Design the sequence.
């Protein structure tokens, strides 16, 4: 929904599919996850509504697929 709201406001946005790497003590869990990336005019920023986080780069997030229109995918390269 955040991706759609950004696009409606004229902000380039895309959905990213990947994995979330979480550590709890000595244990590590990796699970499938989706989040939104939006472009603020300078760089792509991550927004994870489920975890209530806005970050520029986080090693916990491992992206494997970008979704969106063709123009948005070209901007990622």
Sequence:
């Amino acid at each position: 929904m955040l991706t759609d709201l950004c696009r409606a406001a004229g902000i380039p946005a895309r959905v990213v599919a990947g994995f979330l790497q979480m550590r709890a003590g000595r244990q590590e869990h990796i699970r499938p996850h989706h989040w939104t990336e939006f472009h603020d005019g300078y760089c792509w920023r991550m927004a994870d509504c489920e975890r209530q986080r806005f970050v520029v780069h986080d090693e916990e997030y491992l992206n494997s697929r970008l979704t969106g229109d063709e123009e948005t995918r070209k901007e990622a390269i």
User: Anything to note?
Assistant: The mean pLDDT is 77. The first helix runs from residue 2 to 8.
